Amino acid sequence: MFDVALPESLATARERLHRALEHAGRPLDDALLLAVSKTKPESAVRQAHQLGQRDFGENYLQEALDKQTALSELDDIVWHFIGPLQSNKTRSVAERFAWVHSVDRLKIAQRLNEQRPATLAPLNVCLQVNISREPSKSGVAPEETLALAREILTLPRLRLRGLMAIPAPAESMAQQQAPFAALRKLRDELQASLPEALLDTLSMGMSDDLEAAVTEGATIVRLGSAIFGAR
């Protein structure tokens, strides 16, 4: 059953992203809209696909695998795993996803590398950084990010693309921008130390803070409720 509101909400999300990019003086194709489809049925993903959406983010592995099976004929979908990743779930992620945004430990990276099929392109990974230093949040500490990045660059079945963060909620635009600016600065520092790394990705910004993230250089914004409605 299709959602009659989805065409309008997806169009609004795209326009919102374009406005933010334009306001930041960036090209309109400079950031990717990632539709976060966690907890939503496969019919919603199918409808969004029919409307031209190709990149989808999932947090819960079994739910994602069920959707991938149900939508297996849509072979141009790009699946991104964006949730916390446990050791016992790395094999399925390594085999079934194109991106992982939530790598924060070397052990997880090593398992993904070992379990990524040689028949597939290297797995694109972002390091999740606990940029706001919240005790309840996953993520590598900013000062430990360079060491982890160095290790990941030695893993041939992974391709280090950049950083991801979920900052603490903030109300004002300036408060929202601060952690995104810190993440961008950290990425730039990594690039200076690791010139051989691609590091072209800043996965940051969600439904409530897209504009602040784009202002600070986001290249992937992760929108769920703005596209699919409240969970």
Automatic annotation (TrEMBL):
N6-(pyridoxal phosphate)lysine modification, residue list: K38
Keywords assigned: Pyridoxal phosphate
Cross-referenced InterPro entries: Ala_racemase_N (IPR001608), PLP-binding_barrel (IPR029066), PyrdxlP_homeostasis (IPR011078)
Gene3D superfamilies associated with the record: Alanine racemase
All copies of domain Alanine racemase N-terminal, residue ranges: 11-230
UniProt keyword Hydrolase, yes or no: no
Record Pfam families: Ala_racemase_N
SUPFAM superfamilies for this protein: PLP-binding barrel
Family: Belongs to the pyridoxal phosphate-binding protein YggS/PROSC family.
Function: Pyridoxal 5'-phosphate (PLP)-binding protein, which is involved in PLP homeostasis.
Designated name of the protein: Pyridoxal phosphate homeostasis protein
